Amino acid sequence: MPHKLVNNLLRYHVFTIICGIGILILCSIHLPQQNNIPVIPNFDKIVHFTMYFILSISFVVETTMTKSNTRKNILWAYVAALLLSALLGGLIEYIQGYLTDYRSADIMDWLFDLGGSLTACLLIGLTRLAFR
Fold first, then answer.
1. In-domain check, residue 38
2. DSSP H helical segments within the chain, as ranges?
């Protein structure tokens, strides 16, 4: 069974996997300090929200394109997207807090991760209802 799951993930969720790896890399690398860039308040929260918004949209769209569009499968896609975002966001905050000395963990980053994912799921759900 795990072999089938891995094959399905690699076959049908390529963009989601690329997004997840990209998020992991972007949140783990050391960024040099730039003194000449204007400071935008809470810009990192906007970035977290946007990254997980895109991750969740890609996961739900890729999942619903590969499975039958029954209510059970669509609901599963939404729940799985939220769980994926919660786990990946939590893992990244753990890595930032405990495995790096140039980043720090922030619960607000994780909450914005979940907010982006929840917003994506709600937007997709409302769009599906509107164009039913």
1. no
2. 2-12, 14-28, 43-66, 71-94, 107-130
Please report, for residues 71, 74, 100, 108, the alpha-carbon distance to residue 115 in angstroms, rounded to integers and kept in the order given: 23, 19, 25, 10
Q: Is residue 93 part of a domain?
A: yes
Q: Taking each helix axis from N to C terminus, what angle separates 71-94 and 43-66, rounded to the nearest 10 degrees?
A: 140
The residue segments making up the domain with residue 23 are 2-29+43-130
Q: Which residue do the tokens 């029954």 mark? A: 70
Domain count, the chain: 1
Q: With respect to residue 125, please indicate whether it lies within any of the assigned structural domains.
A: yes
- pLDDT value for 1: 55
What is the spatial distance between Cα 73 and Cα 62, in angstroms, rounded to a whole number?
12
- Let me know: does 23 contact 55? Beta carbons within 8 Å: yes
- How far from the centroid of its chain's Cα atoms is residue 68's Cα? 23
When pLDDT is averaged across residues 46-70 and rounded to a whole number, the result is: 90
So what's the pLDDT on residue 10? 66
In a domain, 49, yes or no: yes
103 versus 59: the higher-pLDDT residue is 59
